[in-house]
Amino acid sequence: MKKLKKTASMGSKRRRTTKHPGSSSSSSTEQSECLVAQLPQALIIDILSRLPIRCILNCKSVCKTWLHLMSDPLFVGLHMERSPANLLIQKTPFERIASTELLLVEIVEEDFSNREIIRLFPNINFPDTDFRLLNSCNGLLCLYEDSYGKSEITVHVCNPVLGEYIDIPVVNTDKKFEQHFAFGFSSGSNEYKVLQTFFPDKDTTAAPCLAEIYTVGTGEWRSIGKCSFQT
Amino acid sequence: MSSSTDSPTLTTETTQLSPQPDTETAKPTKKITLKSSDNQIFEVEESVAMEFATVKSFFEDSPSTDTVPLPNVTAKPLSQVIEFCKEQIKFKANPDEAQKKKYNAEFVTEKSDKDLVDMIPVANYLEIKDLLDVLNQAVADRIENKSVEYVRSFFGIDNDFTAEEEAALRREHAWAYEGVDED
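Output (structure tokens, whole complex):
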């Protein structure tokens, strides 16, 4: 489980590539049968994007070039396009002895016997907090940490397969308001955003409903003014 | 189909051979000559050559040429690519999706790993989208569920991670390494 910097752009799901920036040149193998050398990167990306998630994680340790390629937005986009639909199932224990577990089940129409089920565990795949799953979008999860009584609450945006997440701090400034969150992707700007709406806890006439947007990567909340709230 | 000639060294420029227009068009099927980087000559029907987007646009730009030099393509993968495209023409004339799927599957199954990978840059260069899709999927299928070591040897990739780096990567996604096929 890796916590990424708040400024990390989850929009492109880029990983930290501290050790080998721009190591995009093909690996310098002198082997006579180096087949990979004759393939342009775009073709390698195309081939690897056809693999299921498990194999992709496996292939990350083939070589540094591939590790780098698999963080390429082009790769992420192609893979998402080609992946079968997945169903996310949350297994919540009745008591808080066992941890919550998530199951990612591939929906394959023809072949049920061979369907891939990926088990996702707290601390490995997502932060182990007393979370509530808000929603998921393009394989990313938005988790909301329930901390009753605390003034500061945290929203996590998490890539459970890679086991990476970012924290989005939310400061509850006014107790008169109740907060609601939602997570989504803006295809126009290619950004992931969290929407926060405040509405008066009891007396709806006391104050207007307000809304704020957090764009992942920018690190800050931005007010979008009043919002109409209908129940 | 292919005949070796003692033709002069290949240039990337358009070879301005004297065209013989009327005798060619008079024939029922026009032939187009492709020349590989190792100077092999391939005579293919025009319909087959037009499957290669690169060759097609080459002809649109310079219609008077009758030999198309392919400086990035060697004879072996080219002959296999031509074989594939000949079949695709038949399926274009008589669409039969099931037969086409079967042919495409057989086409890649009988090829060695090297032949498959060798054809990919050729299909890419000649812009044969269908073939590229078939080849890339076939390669993906061959490395699916294989160990890291198998994938490395498949492509001839040297491991450039230190032992520590590799161990750390494997720890990170330990669950992905379970249940891979025997090499």
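The interface with chain B takes residues 2, 27-29, 31, 33-40, 43, 46-48, 50-55, 57-67, 118-119, 124, 162-163 of chain A (CB under 8 Å).
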